[in-house]
């Protein structure tokens, strides 16, 4: 795959302090095998060299970042991939589609900050980072700091860890002039609502569950109204399957 190496994230259109939804890929290592994990995450560019990210505790993204500190931020046009990455719960049902291994490729990177992270590994300056093949651009980062913050939203007060990511490289694989249409934007909001629904169910907050379910149903109706957007409709079907299995 050809790419255009960039050193500045603004070269792919990012602006400081804007919230961007990306597919964040982290990994664990088992018997020297890299096991990638991808989740939908909101990021903010702080300056030309750093990004903020807030994964929820008890998620693979959080655990992997604490373990090896490396992450790739994937910019992807296909909203269906956001649904696959965000709504997976293999403990509940094998009917939920997963984010398969064949979606990934590997990016070899050498950097002195990586050497600091992998001080006990051989050839520690060179690491193969998983990223998503369909990404039009990717930013490779290493977590350099973290702090606990209090976040308030419709789920109430939550304590989360905010990671500061140092940018190692920024690659643009192809041009992207994609702007999500209305159906895709609503699909993304619905995916985020479904992740909140899971938290509300676990908290046994019936009022909040009902409120989120109502918003999701309204979103489904809106997406159908906007017509035949295949990616958005596939995302909706995945959300419906996920919610059904939450209730089982």
Can you describe what's shown?
The chain has a 6-stranded antiparallel β-barrel with strand order 2-3-4-9-8-5. Helix content is 33%, strand content 35%. The protein is built from 6 helices and 9 strands. It has helices at residues 60-68, 79-86, 112-117, 182-203, 206-225, 230-247; strands at residues 4-6, 19-30, 33-47, 50-53, 70-75, 104-110, 126-132, 137-153, 156-172. The protein is of the alpha+beta class and 248 residues long.
Shape: globular
Cα gyration radius (Å): 18 Å
The level of helicity is: 25-40%
- The percentage of residues in β strands lies in 35-45%
Look at the helices and sheets and give the structural class.
alpha+beta
Order of helices and strands: EEEEHEHEHEEEHHH
Distance between the termini: 43 Å
Given as residue ranges, the uncertain stretches (5+ residues, pLDDT < 50) are: 1-5
Mean pLDDT, all residues: 83
- Continuous helix count: 6
Number of strands: 9
What strand line-up does the widest sheet have?
A: 2-3-4-9-8-5
Largest sheet: 6 strands, antiparallel, barrel
Explain briefly what this protein structure is.
By secondary structure, this protein is an alpha+beta fold. It has 6 helices and 9 strands, in the order E-E-E-E-H-E-H-E-H-E-E-E-H-H-H. The longest helix is centred in the C-terminal third of the chain and has 22 residues.
């Amino acid at each position: 795959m050809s790419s255009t190496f960039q050193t500045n994230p603004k070269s792919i259109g990012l602006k400081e302090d804007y919230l961007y939804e990306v597919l964040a890929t982290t990994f664990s290592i088992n018997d020297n095998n890299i096991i990638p994990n991808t989740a939908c995450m909101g990021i903010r560019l702080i300056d030309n060299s750093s990004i903020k990210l807030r994964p929820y505790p008890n998620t693979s993204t959080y655990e992997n970042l604490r373990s090896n500190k490396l992450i790739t931020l994937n910019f992807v046009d296909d909203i269906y991939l956001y649904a696959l990455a965000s709504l997976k719960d293999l403990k509940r049902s094998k009917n939920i589609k997963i984010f398969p291994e064949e979606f990934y490729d590997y990016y070899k990177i050498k950097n002195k900050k990586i050497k600091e992270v992998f001080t006990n590994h051989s050839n520690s300056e060179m690491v193969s980072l998983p990223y998503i093949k369909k990404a039009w651009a990717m930013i490779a980062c290493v977590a350099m700091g973290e702090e606990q913050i209090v976040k308030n939203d419709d789920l109430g007060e939550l304590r989360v860890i905010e990671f500061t990511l140092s940018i190692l490289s920024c690659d643009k694989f192809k041009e992207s002039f994609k702007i999500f249409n209305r159906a895709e934007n609503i699909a993304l909001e619905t995916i985020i609502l479904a992740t909140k629904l899971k938290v509300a169910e676990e908290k046994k907050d019936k009022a909040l569950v009902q409120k989120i379910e109502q918003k999701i149903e309204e979103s489904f109706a809106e997406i159908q109204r906007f017509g035949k957007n295949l990616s958005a409709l596939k995302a909706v079907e995945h959300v419906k399957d996920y919610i059904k299995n939450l209730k089982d």
